[in-house]
Structures are given as C-alpha cells and as structure tokens.
Design goal:
This is DYH5 protein. GO terms for molecular function: dynein intermediate chain binding; dynein light intermediate chain binding. InterPro entries: DHC (IPR026983), Dynein_heavy_tail (IPR013594). This protein is an all-alpha fold. The chain has 7 helices and no strands. α5 packs parallel to α7 and α6 packs antiparallel against α7.
C-alpha cells in the first residue's frame, strides 16, 4: 500500500500537469492584429507537436507500468487518469486533423502575400472553394470560431498585400 500511495501521488501530479496543458490549450490566443493565415497553420502544427509528445509520454512503458500497478491495486485515481488520457487523445487528433486540412490551403498563402492585388484575386475562387471543403468535411475545424479566425487572417494578408502594392506603386 505504501508503494501504491507513492504511485498515486505521482499520477496525481501528472493529472494536475496534464489538466494545466489542456486548460492552456483552450485559452484564447493573443496574436498581432495583422497576422496572416500561415500563423494559423503554425499554431496547429505547434499544438500537434505538443500533444503528440504528451501522448508519447502517456503511452511510454514507464507510465504503462505505473498505471497497471494502480489497476491491480484498484486505485481510485485511475478514473481521472483515463478521462484525461481520452481528452489528450482527442486534442491530439483535433490538432493532427486541423494541420492536415490547413495544409490544403498552404499553396494559397504564398500567392496571397507575394503577388499584385489583381493576380491575388485570381486565386480567391480556388481558395474559397478549398475553405468551403474544409468547412463541410473537417470534423474539428468546421466551427464558427475556427472559420472566423482563418478568414480574418486571410483578410489581413490580402490587406497587407494591397498596402504593400500601393506603397511600392
């Protein structure tokens, strides 16, 4: 029982740390007002990396051994652990899926930033069709919050491109 108590203490520390990661990941992002759409992809890539790393730790043999010992001891901390394990898995899947969908837009980000406004407008119909596809098929990214954030960043990029064009002309 002494070993079980020590292991439960360790798992409770992990639970507290994982909860903190989940809370921080759900907080509002603070970004510059004129940030472009590449920042959205970078955000989700960073988040995917963080959650995949955390999942790797959770699935490590060291953690699995501790969890199996606590299972044998019928520890009450395992209910919380299993819930958090599921939440981390969902967050990792969401980030991975969002990165996959946002990569389909990556080919538009360069033209939005580096061409004239007239040339940029040639890319808008394809860009909007791709965004529509993401909205219709993505299980995670199709929320109003995500779509608004993406469209705002695309608009910011278009405005910055037009400003640069006007200042150079």
């Amino acid at each position: 029982t002494e070993v079980t108590e020590k292991l439960e203490e360790v798992v409770m520390i992990w639970i507290k740390q994982i909860r903190q990661v989940l809370v921080e990941s759900e907080q509002m992002r603070r970004e510059a007002g004129d940030v472009g759409p590449s920042a959205e992809l970078e955000h989700w890539k960073t988040r995917m990396s963080s959650f995949n790393s955390l999942l790797g730790e959770i699935k490590s043999t060291r953690v699995k051994k501790i969890i199996s010992i606590l299972q044998a001891a019928r520890s009450k901390t395992l209910r919380q652990w299993k819930e958090l394990d599921g939440n981390i898995t969902i967050a990792a899947n969401e980030a991975k899926d969002n990165v996959r969908y946002l990569y389909t837009l990556d080919k538009f980000f360069g033209p939005l930033a580096k061409v004239s406004p007239v040339t940029m407008m040639e890319h808008v119909p394809s860009l909007m069709n791709t965004i529509c596809m993401i909205c219709c098929t993505s299980p995670y990214y199709n929320t109003s919050e995500h779509m608004t954030s993406l469209l705002l960043k695309i608009t910011n990029q278009m405005i910055n491109t037009c400003k640069t064009y006007l200042c150079e002309g």
